[in-house]
Amino acid sequence: MKEEQVQDSNEMNDEAINETQAADEAEAVQENDAAFEEASCGEAAKRLQELAEEAQARALRVQADFDNFRRRTQKEKEELAQYATSKLVGELLSVLDNFERALVTAPGNAESEAFTKGINMIFRQLEGVLKSEGLTAMETVGQPFNPEYHQAIMQVESEEYEEGIVTEEVQKGYLLKDKVLRPAMVKVSM
């Protein structure tokens, strides 16, 4: 009996050891599974973080592109409104030139004085309307030649002006606000 008891006791110890080992192995497997799950979750979280950052960067680029587009279209609208009359004003410059020529060649006798005065009033009225739209005549004589504002049609010798200075204006040049509407035709000293 003692042997049986010892044997039973040994068997129970073996069983307890086996159960403990099995429990330890199960616990180790659970720990490995948890560690693997954490690693997988960590990698997944890292990947999701990267995707979120890419989406955020794309959203910021789209927002910046939209802001640039909005500013550009607003600027274009302002320029269009500012210079919308440039074609009409440009076409009226020849009318303005003809009025000036008519006033220069008008006869000075008493019979045509009233007619010349009326033409002069119409000319001043037209000139005032164009000035209210932003039209200004360029001052050219005595200024250095600038190809952005002047169109040289001839070079002349001049004792009065040094080289590269506008000596005579053949046709007036005009600015509409801050842009050249028509360059002045000029003679330049050489």
Automatic annotation (TrEMBL):
Residues 45-72 form a coiled coil. It comes from the Bacteria. Residues 11-36 have a biased composition (Acidic residues). InterPro entries: GrpE, GrpE_CC, GrpE_head. Signal peptide: none annotated. Gene3D superfamilies: 3.90.20.20, Head domain of nucleotide exchange factor GrpE (2.30.22.10). The keyword Hydrolase does not apply. The keyword Coiled coil applies. Pfam families: GrpE. Residues 1-41 are annotated as: Disordered. Homodimer. Belongs to the GrpE family. Participates actively in the response to hyperosmotic and heat shock by preventing the aggregation of stress-denatured proteins, in association with DnaK and GrpE. It is the nucleotide exchange factor for DnaK and may function as a thermosensor. Unfolded proteins bind initially to DnaJ; upon interaction with the DnaJ-bound protein, DnaK hydrolyzes its bound ATP, resulting in the formation of a stable complex. GrpE releases ADP from DnaK; ATP binding to DnaK triggers the release of the substrate protein, thus completing the reaction cycle. This is Protein GrpE.
